[in-house]
Each structure stands twice: as structure tokens, then as C-alpha cells.
Amino acid sequence: MAERSTPRYIWAEAPLDPAPSLSRDKIVEVAITIVDAEGLDALSMRRLGTELSVRPMSLYRYVPSKDDLLELINDAVLGEQRLPEKPSGDWRADLRLAATEQRAVALRHPWSVTTSIGRPAMGPNAVRVTEFAMAALDGFGLDMDTINGLVGMLRGYVFGNVAEDLAQAELTRRTGITDEQWEEIFIPWVERLLADGRHPMMARFIREADHWNDDRVFEFGVERILDGIAAALPSSA
């Protein structure tokens, strides 16, 4: 039986010197253009080769596998997060900024929600954004597992919020029905809910709520997550 080769990590390998018409950076740039326009299913080495006018096999000299390519493009878009080199010292403001930037990148590149979930991302940009968030909670006497858990809690909220927004946008795209049109469609059912008296909280929501937009919902949730993090800090903080 042939021995199984030892897996290699893309970031541990130095990229090949770029050729006149090809480089790892160029491959990543074109891959992002494809998935932004058409989604992850459209991405393949054959498609990349066509777009770059090279034989698909030549791409493997720069990117060993499709999984490596996904890691590379995921890290590239993480580099769009506009974070200062170091936290400001106001941990709430720093984590609020980290959450807002994470959401902005995910909404610009919806596919990145999928590529960011799974094994820990350890590319240079992923390390940079994680370092910033963790450093915001340094100095309070927390152990590293607690810091990691708190940062992960905030990150998980952002991904969940973005996934819901993207699902709503996909429904609109697939059906061609806008939010305003859905509201018109729902009117007969809403009137029945209001009339039967069996769902008083939903009736109150329909009658009384301001019905926040996506940005307001996100901001409210981030503040509640930050309240939870505050509860985990020493009282002196």
C-alpha cells in the first residue's frame, strides 16, 4: 500500500517566483472576480485557466489544490477589513469596529461566509484581524481560552446575522418579489393573526414595532454581545 503523503499548509510554503503572465496573486485576483460574480460553484481550475489564458495544470505550480485556492481567496478578502495596527484601548469601540468591518466584507463577498467557517483560518490577514480582536481584550486578566471564546462569540453573531441578510437577498433575487411586495402578499394572513387573538405577542409586534432595518438589527445585536463580554470582564474593567 502506498504511503499517504503528509498534508502541506499553503501558508507554510513560499510561493513560486511569478512568471511574466502568471502569479499566485493574479490567480487569487481572478478567482475572486469569478466567485463575486457567479458564486463558488463557478470556480474551477479549468475556468481559471480559461480566464488567465493558461493550461489548468500550470496553475497547480502556484496553488496546489482547490482547497488551497479557497483559503487564499478567503484570506485576500479579509485583508479588506480596515483595522488599525493596534487597538485604541477602548475595548468596546475596538470590537464594535471589528464586527462592523467583518460584516461589511461578508456582504461584499457573500461566498466568504462559507469559506470562513470550518477549520481555523491562519493566513496573514486572518491572523491580523484575530490579533486585533484578541488584543482588544488583553490586560483584563483573562486566560486565552476565554479571550478566544469571547471573540468567537462576536464573530459567530456576525456570521449568523449576515447569513440571514443574504438569505433574504437570495429570496428576493430568486422570486423577483421585493420586501414591499411580500408585505402586500402577507396582508390577508396578518389580518387573520390579528383577529384570532391566539398570538398576542405577534399582534403587538405587528402593531407596535418600528420594524428596524438590517443595519439597526445588527447594531442592536452587537451591543448586546458586547454587554455579554462586559459581564465576563473583572468588575474593575
TrEMBL record:
<keyword id="KW-0805">Transcription regulation</keyword>
<feature type="domain" description="HTH tetR-type">
    <location>
        <begin position="21"/>
        <end position="81"/>
    </location>
</feature>
<keyword id="KW-0804">Transcription</keyword>
<dbReference type="Pfam" id="PF00440">
    <property type="entry name" value="TetR_N"/>
</dbReference>
<dbReference type="InterPro" id="IPR009057">
    <property type="entry name" value="Homeodomain-like_sf"/>
</dbReference>
<protein>
    <submittedName>
        <fullName>TetR/AcrR family transcriptional regulator C-terminal domain-containing protein</fullName>
    </submittedName>
</protein>
<dbReference type="InterPro" id="IPR036271">
    <property type="entry name" value="Tet_transcr_reg_TetR-rel_C_sf"/>
</dbReference>
<dbReference type="InterPro" id="IPR001647">
    <property type="entry name" value="HTH_TetR"/>
</dbReference>
<feature type="DNA-binding region" description="H-T-H motif">
    <location>
        <begin position="44"/>
        <end position="63"/>
    </location>
</feature>
<dbReference type="InterPro" id="IPR004111">
    <property type="entry name" value="Repressor_TetR_C"/>
</dbReference>
<keyword id="KW-0238">DNA-binding</keyword>
<dbReference type="Pfam" id="PF02909">
    <property type="entry name" value="TetR_C_1"/>
</dbReference>
<dbReference type="InterPro" id="IPR050109">
    <property type="entry name" value="HTH-type_TetR-like_transc_reg"/>
</dbReference>
